[in-house]
Amino acid sequence: MNKDDLIAYTELFIKCESEEYIPSPQVYSPLYVRLYNALLSQDEPELLSVDDIASLPESTLEDINNRSTNSFDRYLMANYISPFELSYPLPLPEEDLNYQRLNQYLCLRYNKTSQESDSFNTDRAFKDVLSLFPIKHRDTFGSKDNKKYRSSFFKLLTLNYKLSRVNEKWKDHARRAPLSNSTHYHMDTIIAFNGLDSEVSKQASATFMTLYYELDQSSPDGDSQSSRNIVVIPSALNLIDFSVRDGLVEKWCEGLDYEERHEETVGSIRQRITSIETQVQYNDPHHNFCDVLRTAILCNSHYNKLLAKREFEDTIYKDDECEQVFRSLLKDMSWYAKPLERAELTALIMESIPCIKETLLNNSFNEQIWSIANHLKPQLIDRMPSLSDSAAYNLSVLFVVLCKRKFPRIRGSLQGANRPYSLWKALKDGHSKVNSESLNLWEYESVYRPSLLHMMELVSLLVIWKSDKTINRFDQFVQLRREILDTQIIVNDALDGEHHSHVIKLANALTLQKEPLVNSRNEPVFERFWKKSDPKIRSLSKHMAEHLKRKSLRWPS
């Protein structure tokens, strides 16, 4: 495979049944979806690199017929062919567990230029992939001579070579960033991988998703280890962040000083982390390897997002024009929480921000503003779940008006394209795509810039906190936001290396402590995940039933 072939391969993993980019991992990989869609239609599924199953090597056909246990494993073996591949579901034979054999395979399959075994810097490559793991697990997995995980590491080294051909810096998006290096993690490259017209963002997304799904494809379902639940980790971490934010605001309003707020918030969460019991046993070393790494890269990505948010906020608060807009909102706008007709809302916005009136025709906002706000509303509720529908809509309209009339161009800090962009133009472009392609609500995040959505959250928080007298001055707003982000980073750091079940249990406990669910069978983490991932299937049990039904389908005959 040459570089163009590898790029096309990785881009397969950022699409889900369509040409739309997916903003976070879905329950099953695109290859899984491709296989079972074909089988349900009684078609032969398309293979990645050969015309049909008859074209496969005889040794591969023998393995498929004699050693695979289910249709998806058979499909993976037909697609990946070699045990050196991470997604190949069987371990490497003992005779292949050496770097010379690995080097030969990379030369044969991926056009590695030198066949000399010393051309492959094994020490550097090993340390590179080991850096993806949490520090607390590196001693367990970190010995090159540890035979227990040797097959898994050889497979990961193959993937590392493949992805490095696409983007040499791909691991920067999957490993945990050092605090001292946060300026290298930018909003529109890190916060959400989406369909921006940037090859940098596209490559970051494609390589990250390829790593996630190859790990996912190669490991068992892991019912006793709840491995299918790893995909909900981003939802769990979001709920933990919300708990930190809301808890700090409550303590701020109670008049506690910084040390007291920090001690109570971080101390209580750390106590909960240690009190949660999670005992999981793995009989399959590769399964353990994949679960730890899949969990780690999702946690790393979230942690890097927090660093990027902090860097982004530090930058915009120092921008004089942005600061002027924020200061213009430092007034009582308690009307934001009320159900309002369009005329009422328009009048209240013009009253709160008088200069807006000068730019309007007939003292009214055009239909485009209302339509864009309607698209943004679920995104705001997603970030601030306690908001009522009316409040979220009113705040979204206010934000859209500010983007059109007040906010200057901002830097989303796309690596390789670090130019200011117009919030209003970005809103119009996203709105146009949503309308033309009939996207679902959960897909909106893939077309609106992450920095833009974060600006909407900041505007909304400023209006809410000023109206309920949480803050009175702009410097207080900046201080509270910085304290929230710093604390979220500390809490996320404390979770580094925890089992995925542990993180999910913590998120459920913190959320239920604040907002107990009534008449709901699902836990808060899963409620959030299904709402964002697939609104048609609202429970894991229903999805697992569908999964088991698919597993009974056989291929090839």
Structure in words:
- This protein is mainly alpha-helical and 557 residues long.
- The chain has helices at residues 3-11, 30-40, 58-67, 71-80, 99-110, 122-130, 135-141, 150-166, 187-191, 199-218, 233-253, 258-275, 285-317, 320-328, 342-352, 367-383, 389-405, 423-437, 450-467, 474-494, 500-514, 524-533, 540-551; strands at 410-411, 420-421.
- Strands 1-2 form a two-stranded antiparallel sheet.
- The longest helix has 33 residues, at 285-317.
- It starts with a helix and ends in a 6-residue tail after the last helix.
Please list the strands of the largest sheet in the order they lie side by side: 1-2
Radius of gyration: 25 Å
Q: Which of globular, elongated, flat, extended, rod-shaped describes the shape? A: globular
- The oligomerization state is single chain
Can you tell me the residue ranges where pLDDT is under 50 for at least 5 consecutive residues?
Answer: none
Query: Strand-and-helix sequence, N→C?
Result: HHHHHHHHHHHHHHHHHEEHHHHHH
Number of helices: 23
Helix % is 55-70%
Q: Approximately how much beta-strand content do the residues carry? A: under 5%
Q: Specify the biggest β-sheet.
A: 2 strands, antiparallel
The overall strand count is: 2
* Average pLDDT number: 85
How far is the first residue's CA from the last residue's CA? 29 Å
**SSE-based structural type:** mainly alpha
Map the helices and strands:
Elements: H1 3-11, H2 30-40, H3 58-67, H4 71-80, H5 99-110, H6 122-130, H7 135-141, H8 150-166, H9 187-191, H10 199-218, H11 233-253, H12 258-275, H13 285-317, H14 320-328, H15 342-352, H16 367-383, H17 389-405, E1 410-411, E2 420-421, H18 423-437, H19 450-467, H20 474-494, H21 500-514, H22 524-533, H23 540-551
Antiparallel strand pairs: 1-2
